[in-house]
Design a protein that fits this description.
- By secondary structure, this protein is of the alpha/beta class.
- The chain folds into three domains: about 80 residues, no CATH class; about 325 residues, Glycogen Phosphorylase B (Rossmann fold); about 260 residues, Glycogen Phosphorylase B (Rossmann fold), CATH 3.40.50.
- The chain contains 29 helices and 20 strands.
- The longest helix has 29 residues.
- It is globular and about 80 Å long.
- The protein binds pyridoxal-5'-phosphate.
- Pyridoxal-5'-phosphate binds next to helix 8, helix 24 and helix 25.
């Protein structure tokens, strides 16, 4: 390739140094052409090292690296990637200049207990974390001034291993911190920041690590310090590990410690955004600072902080909300409470639906709702459900007047769209970029050649089949399966067959058991000789959830039954990597939660970008997205108080729609072998859904309906219906 490199001031850096710098900004992870550089260096090690570029670079001396780069003629590509990164981080996009000016030098401080950014940074468990990761990436893309605050867990969430009997084993692995793209966070004097969080039983210390995500900085607090007791050194080891005491300690470190860290960094947030109730304590430290800085009363400071605070609730499932017993709250919050000048009862009232009920536990969601002026659910339906759920906090208001709106979740398009799709769209849709949220641009997908769209999709499906075979072989080798079983695993799934993906937490309300309940019916569906159907499952059950584990066992038992072994596969250890493979390779994404318990769901939004069709209960985002021709609905959204009746009815509708609509349409081919009606539906799905359920649209909505009003700019009423 002959490209004349213009002169710029990086002539002194070697290719190795440039790659190290690239590896220290997760920007690389959503640029396939940059990912490919690392992959080309050593495809096998890249896979074995879990797609971690720092770990990969460490395998070379700088000299070895230079010769490898020379051998592969990668210099130009590395230069180009480096230059693009530098340009990216130094620019402020037009969108932000036009739409987020008011935020200026007072950024949004976005608090979340987990961030799902990439499989090589294991500080997430599932949907909530991936959503936070996508939020941060889109804030970077749009140029919204935002800093993110979370915790660093050196063991992350558990890795799932399936044993010989089909049981789930949970494995906690120490993350090698030196392989993560961290830098220490420094204060104005260049000193490493240590924050102190006081409790009645001692001070907890935390260091602060910085992780660059494009233009956004993510600060992660970590209590693994010698100044702490052994117990506290391990406090931030595991995400959602330990007991209630662990949890409240993690939450004061992240919330209270996070606000202190911002101050030490010299950052004065204009807006606090609490992603779920876990971080509601942050508001109380912000109130304390305001009282101290401005000599305000508690009430005045609360009014100010609430005006600046946005609270997002994420689940109608009761177990998803944190409740703490008053003694635990007192042990951990008494020092802060005293500075706020509150009695114990006054303090506890902040976390109670009924402030006068001394038996009520302290609820983090209630605290978040009380201390914020802007609150939202994550889909239109979830907005309705949340108003109903929390209306008693505003006894003088009707349910409709309850001040909880909604901003529907979305996904970060560059992260979830397959490179092949991206290339196709770039080539065939004028003016299209992955960052576009203009419906007119996306609707040009109707002009894309049906055959080309189909071929691209089929190539992705073949990749998924290869991935599933490789993973299954690895799984079987690990448990010492016999040679026959392993040889068989190399031939499972059929790249031509209708492929249905089902991947999510095996939580009860998600009802993974539904579709595998009736074995005879399943046999007829999957083993139909003319129109075969196959299922790819993945998902973790919570370590304490025996029912969820039993469902996994059931799926594995089917997979090990010769009748189903070619058509049903369970992939262990669902994470961002497995998720990406699945959403990019399936034909259909099945989702059958118990309405209305799925607040939004985002995995179905990822498949849209890759041309798969949603097949879902009308719950969460799908309830507002489905229009009759952009996917398939299960049932009509009706519910029943008897859960058994509801399960039966939903399952009957699921199987009926699958057999009568989904399967026939997929196998209805024209003379060239193209499923014309199906491809039409793929295009409907992309045209109507991709921009609307993108994280760029979501973050743009947060700016408009929440961040600008909270920062004192113009206000717009958040959508309620
Ligand atoms: C997108 C994603 C989720 C969220 O899935 P839903 O079931 O739709 O909430 C969870 N886990 C991973 C790894 C994901 O990529």
């Amino acid at each position: 390739m002959t490209e004349t490199t213009p002169s710029f001031r990086d002539g002194s850096l070697t290719a190795y140094q440039k790659c190290v710098e690239i590896a220290h900004n997760l920007w690389w992870s959503w640029h396939p052409e940059v990912v490919e550089i690392f992959q080309l260096l050593d495809p096998i090690r890249w896979r074995e090292l879990g797609h971690n570029p720092i770990a990969l670079l460490r395998e070379y001396t700088p000299e070895q690296f230079e010769s490898r780069v020379l051998e592969l003629t990668l210099h130009t590509r590395i230069d180009m990637a480096y230059r693009r990164l530098k340009k990216y981080v130094s620019e402020r996009p037009m969108w932000a200049r036009q739409n987020a000016g008011v935020l200026g030098s007072r950024p949004v401080a976005y608090f979340s207990l987990e961030f799902g950014l990439h499989e090589s940074v294991p500080i997430y468990s599932g949907g909530l974390g991936v959503l936070a990761g996508d939020h941060v990436k889109s804030a970077s893309g749009l140029g919204v001034p935002l800093v993110a605050i979370g915790l660093f867990y050196d063991q992350g969430y558990f890795k799932q291993l399936i044993d010989e009997t089909g049981g789930q084993a949970e494995n906690y692995v120490d993350t090698k911190v030196e392989y993560l793209p961290f830098e220490p966070a420094l204060d104005a004097d260049g000193k490493k920041i240590i924050v102190e969080v006081e409790t009645k039983t001692g001070t907890i210390y935390a260091k602060v690590r910085r992780l660059r995500v494009g233009r956004v900085d993510l600060y992660l607090l970590d209590t693994d310090l010698e100044a702490n007791s052994q117990e506290d050194r391990e406090l931030t080891s595991r995400l959602y590990g330990g007991n209630k005491r662990t949890r409240i300690r993690q939450e004061i470190v992240c919330g209270v410690g996070g606000v202190k860290a911002l101050r030490a960094l010299g950052i004065a947030p204009g807006v606090y955004h609490l992603n779920e109730g876990h971080n509601s304590f942050a508001t109380l430290e912000a109130v304390r600072q305001k009282m101290e800085d401005c000599g305000m009363t508690f009430e005045a400071a609360v009014a100010d902080v609430a005006q600046q605070t946005v609270f997002t609730t994420h689940t109608p499932v009761e177990a998803g909300h944190d409740y703490f017993d008053p003694a635990l709250v007192d042990e951990h919050l008494a020092p802060l409470r005293e500075k706020l000048g509150l009695t114990e009862d006054e303090f506890l009232a902040l976390g109670r639906k009924n402030p006068l009920d001394a038996n009520e536990e302290f609820c983090m969601t209630v605290l978040g709702l009380k201390l914020s002026r802007y609150a939202n659910g994550v889909s239109s339906l979830h907005g309705v459900v949340s108003r109903r759920m929390w209306r008693s906090l505003w006894p003088e208001k009707t349910e409709e007047e309850t001040p909880i709106g909604h901003i529907t979740n979305g996904v970060h398009v560059p992260t979830w769209m397959a490179p092949q799709m991206k290339t196709l769209f770039e080539r065939t849709i004028p003016g299209w970029t992955e960052e576009s949220i203009d419906p007119a641009v996306w609707s040009q997908v109707y002009d894309v050649d049906a055959g080309e769209l189909w071929e691209t999709h089929c190539a992705l499906k073949t990749q998924l089949v290869d991935f599933a075979r490789r993973r299954t072989v690895r799984q079987l080798e690990r448990v010492g399966a016999d040679a026959d079983a392993i040889a068989q695993a190399r031939t499972i799934l059929d790249p031509e067959a209708l492929t249905i993906g089902f991947a999510r937490r095996f939580a009860e309300y998600k009802r993974a058991y539904l579709v595998v309940q009736d074995e005879e019916r399943l046999d007829r569906i999957v083993n139909n000789p003319e129109r075969p159907v196959q299922f790819v499952f993945a998902g973790k059950a919570h370590p304490a959830d025996d029912l969820g584990k039993a469902v996994i066992r059931r799926v594995i038992a089917l997979q090990r039954n010769p009748k189903f072994s070619k058509r049903i596969v369970f992939l262990e250890d669902y994470d961002i990597n497995v998720g990406r493979r699945l959403v990019q390779g399936v034909d259909v994404w099945l989702n059958n939660p118990r309405r209305p318990l799925e607040a939004s769901g985002t995995s179905g939004q990822k498949v849209v970008l890759n041309g798969a069709l949603n097949f879902s209960i009308l719950d969460g985002w799908w309830a507002e997205a489905y229009d009759g021709s952009n996917g398939f609905a299960i049932g009509d959204g009706s519910i029943h108080t008897d859960l058994r009746v509801m399960d039966e009815r939903d399952n009957a509708n699921l199987l009926k729609t699958l057999e009568n609509e989904v399967v026939p349409m997929f196998y209805d081919r024209d003379k060239d072998g193209l499923p014309v009606r199906w491809i039409r539906r793929m295009k409907n799905s992309i045209a109507t859904l991709a921009w609307r359920f993108s994280a760029h649209r979501m973050v743009a909505d947060y700016v408009k309906y929440a961040y600008l009003p909270a920062a004192g700019g113009q206000s717009a009423k958040m959508p309620q219906f």
